[in-house]
Amino acid sequence: MRILALLLVMLVPAAGPALKDLMPKGMLIGAAINKSQSDGTDTVADAIVEQQFNTISPENILKWGLVHPEPERYDFEPADHYVDFGQKHGMKVIGHNLVWHQQTPAWVFTDANGQRLSRERLLERMHDHIKTVVGRYRGRIHGWDVVNEAFDEDGTLRKSLWRDGIGDDYLLKAFEFAREADPQAELYYNDYNLWKPAKRSGALRLVKQLKDAGLRIDAVGEQGHWNMTAPSLDEIEATITDIAGAGVKAMITELDIDVLPRDPKMFGADLNARQQFKAATDIYAKGLPPEQQQALAKRYADAFALFLEHREHLSRITFWGVTDAHTWLNNFPLPGRTNHPLLWDRQGQPKPAFAAVAKTLEGK
Ligand code: XIL
Q1: What backbone torsions phi and psi does residue 147 show, to the nearest 5 degrees?
Q2: Which of 193, 318, 320, 324 to mutate to test the pocket of ligand 1 (most atoms within 8 A of CB)?
Q3: Using a 6 Å cutoff on CB, does residue 332 contact ligand 1?
Q4: Is 74 in the pocket of ligand 1 (CB under 6 A)?
Q5: How confident is the model over 317-338, as pLDDT tens digits?
Q6: pLDDT, tens digit, for every residue of 190-214?
Q7: Which atom of ligand 1 is nearest to the CA of 63?
Q8: Cβ of residue 223 lying under 6 Å from some atom of ligand 1
Q9: DSSP E strands: which ranges in the chain?
Q10: Distance from the CA of 11 to the center of ligand 1, in angstroms?
Q11: How far apart are CA 219 and CA 247, in angstroms?
């Protein structure tokens, strides 16, 4: 018996701390997963997700273009696997997202002849989509990003095909339809750069409008696509307390810390310029050196210490990905770089940033 027990100890890898067990009560911790994780082929990432997290988000699977690629065709298979995966592991399953200006097919906004739809017909299309997708997972998806990224940096509404086609009330309509489709599901507004006060003011205005209209909104998500210096801890803190001050929970929904140089000119650069930017900025292609590992660990530890301070305002922290092997930041804003924004490296080994987060949570 003793030998058997010893053998088992040697064979089963040391589990180490699980973030989900270290989080304060009421604050979920999760990661966005993609198809190869929800269908079980990425066993490295799956082992981490199952051990560490109690909530998952769909990195792409539930976006309009993937779940509803053609007018009369829904492709629910990947999404069904995703929801099953989360339920099987007792996780809170998040829906992302219902209304966005990206990853939404062009046909959504036009009729069979390519003419722009009237307000009424576009509203009908939005309604059908939300009713079908939210309705299918009623009672199984815990909360939905109803509208994603609707504001410009100055806090005014972003120009988009949704806004052009329906009018400024398209956001309220989306929330109305989502509540109708699943009255129990939590409903969220989600955006990036809400740490910038001007942009945040737009989201807070929306919260008030929804509340004044008697509609449901549970939380606002700051995506948390941050870098090594911005936003400052003060800016993160103001984001959390302002959102809470509007009477909803705050969440960090897509957390990752970009360690590579970024330049505004990278967006929309032509091929030649992109290659030049890549050559100049893909500086950790051979791995993240120890000094940068430590700096990243500190950045994460500082952020989590702040999250702990505001535990009563924060309902969820979700990383945008699991390991550095598959982070979207390997391809954004430039394709083909080697980024290192998450807590696990390309082999699925915990980085110093993982230990730093665990230690911060242990000290709570
Ligand atoms: C990204 C995914 O990570 C990529 O795989 C995809 O190619 C583009 O979208 N804000 C969001 C997310 O709300 O949906 C985006 O996800 C990242 C930015």
Answers
A1: -125, 135
A2: 320
A3: no
A4: no
A5: 999 999 999 999 999 999 999 9
A6: 999 999 999 999 999 999 999 999 9
A7: 14
A8: yes
A9: 28-33, 55-58, 92-99, 143-148, 186-191, 219-222, 225-227, 249-258, 314-319
A10: 38
A11: 9
Q: Which atom of ligand 1 is nearest to the CA of 192?
A: 10
* Token pair belonging to 71: 């007018």
Residue 323 tokens, joined? 């390991």
Is the CB of residue 330 below 6 angstroms from any atom belonging to ligand 1?
Answer: no
Contact 147, 97 (CB under 8 A): yes
Token pair recorded at residue 207: 């919260």
Number of Cβ within 10 Å of residue 58's Cβ equals 27
Distance 27 CA to ligand 1 centre (A): 23
Three-state SS string over 289-310 comes to CHHHHHHHHHHHHHHHHHHHHC
* Structure-token pair, residue 250: 């705050």
Check pocket membership of 59 for ligand 1, CB cut-off 6 A: yes
Distance 320 CA to ligand 1 centre (A): 8
Report the C-alpha gap between 189 and 294 in whole angstroms: 33
pLDDT digits (tens, 9 = 90+) for 97-151: 999 999 999 999 999 999 999 999 999 999 999 999 999 999 999 999 999 999 9
